[in-house]
Design goal:
The structure is a homodimer.
Chain A: E1 2-4, H1 7-19, E2 24-29, H2 35-47, E3 50-55, H3 75-84, E4 89-91, H4 95-98, E5 106-108, H5 117-120, H6 124-139, E6 143-147, H7 151-163, E7 169-173, H8 193-214, H9 220-232, E8 237-245, E9 261-269, E10 272-280
Parallel strand pairs in A: 1-4, 2-3, 2-6, 3-4, 6-7
Antiparallel strand pairs in A: 8-9, 9-10
Helix pairs in contact in A: 6-7, 8-9
Chain lengths: ~280, ~280
């Protein structure tokens, strides 16, 4: 496994793979890898000749006052995990390699970036789209892999790839959860034992909503109320948002359909913001 | 010469060239071709195995009330001219091929798009960057060619290509002029005989400024005053802007340097907006 820190060195390595006719799978991450990330890597390994994983905590997707500095990092652990999976290349660039002095270009997917998480994090998806576009241009992979926990992110990336005519296939991979149901997130490392317990409120509430939908409930307002009430039973937790939107346009819907619905929520457990969701239909 | 209207057909044709190991030169245009465009095509022919020219009047770079509808079009004439130069492919997409329903993704080069022409045309460079990025992704050329008459456009495209890590070389080609000095522009076709005469004011004023700089004048304000006064001698012309900025950052400068200066102006001759410039240093 090679660890590469600069764009020219990465391109040189990738040229070799391409000269051999290899397909390339790409998994962009912010590191502090958990089984969610590793399931993306495993899928890429299955479907491609070569797999490249990037580890880059992208400052452009954090707003002022957000947790860029507190975001957990552990390169040694990440390297060990990726080596076990026989990844070909880890791309680990410095911030100035991605955003050199005078950097000025940003891509936005219009209103898609202004709803759900984009409401509380106004420049977040601009940062996500921009860094993913850059990484896709640098790696030029056959396929790229994104987790469904960040459903809005996956939907926006697929939309950007389509709108900008990029020749890469985007695959999305199911959420991986702890045994008690908490969606895996690098940010879970920042939870105190007490916060860890109540963080469960979100996945529990979503699970309950899912059951009600399975029993026939279709009213989006009723589903949102149910989720909010369930979360409110827990102490120390505040709700950022609970939304029911269409999967294909991220627009608010009144009636749930079984093939085009995203039910998503975000909560604060102490200083840590956590998200979770389920979908009816495919991203 | 093939005329191709859809993205999949173009990609199929380009795959053949790439399988043959051909280099590809790309000249994006809005059609109604003049010798300025043709000099770009000639340069591409010299430097590449294959040359692709796109003809697409890009609605995204026209603001509301601008001359999208009045922009001159003549595909037959364009085809004839490009056939004479033995261009390989003309890509002539419909608007819905480039911007299908629900299109939402735009790229911007920050403050670079808000000065000079961007001041009077606030969404213009967003439209330019976006369509050029899309076309570069579709064609994936070795080199792409842009005219220096649209100096700000060329500078912004080079900046975008660098910032977004695109693997294409951007070449810029000198302004081509009528014998009396008027910079060639498709929009010159919209000038009445009277407007055509006074349109010369801009190139004449810039020529005078150039001479003063050659004689030692370095004060940017004095240069701007001189250009404004010269243009004001002509009837029927109004000034949109006259600016002296750095070539590498499009920032206002007080003192002219011989290696990093763009002197640019825009005027209205009747309903037609015309631009011209000269540079000290290379774009």
């Amino acid at each position: 496994m090679k660890i590469i820190e600069t764009i020219p060195q990465l391109r040189e390595e990738l040229r070799k793979y391409k000269a051999q006719g290899n397909t390339i799978g790409f998994v962009p991450t912010m590191g502090y890898l958990h089984q969610g990330h590793l399931s993306l890597v495993e899928q890429s390994k299955k479907e491609n000749d070569r797999t490249v994983v990037s580890i880059f905590v992208n400052p452009a997707q954090f707003g002022p006052g957000e947790d860029f500095d507190r975001y957990p990092r552990n390169l040694e652990m990440d390297e060990r995990l990726l080596k076990e999976l026989a990844v070909d290349v880890v791309f680990y660039p410095a911030v100035k390699e991605i955003y050199p002095g005078g950097y000025a270009t940003y891509v936005e997917v219009g209103k898609w970036g202004n709803v759900l998480c984009g409401k509380s994090r106004p420049t977040h998806f601009r940062g996500v789209s921009t860094v993913v576009l850059k990484l896709l241009n640098i790696v030029s992979p056959t396929c790229a892999y994104f987790g469904r926990k960040d459903a809005q992110q996956a939907i926006i990336i697929k939309k950007m790839v389509k709108d900008l005519n990029l020749e890469v296939t985007i695959h999305t991979i199911p959420i991986v959860r702890d045994p008690d149901g908490l969606a895996l997130s690098s940010r879970n490392a920042n939870l105190s034992p007490e916060e860890r317990k109540v963080a469960l409120s979100l996945s529990r509430a979503l699970e309950k909503a899912k059951t009600e939908i399975a029993h026939g409930l279709r009213d989006a307002s009723a589903i949102k109320d149910l989720i909010r009430k369930e979360i409110d039973k827990y102490p120390l937790v505040t709700i950022d948002y609970v939304e029911v939107v269409s999967l294909d346009a991220l627009e608010q819907i009144k009636t749930i359909t079984l093939d085009n619905t995203l039910v998503a929520g975000a909560i604060w457990a102490g200083k840590t913001r956590l998200i979770d969701n389920f979908t009816l239909g495919e991203i």
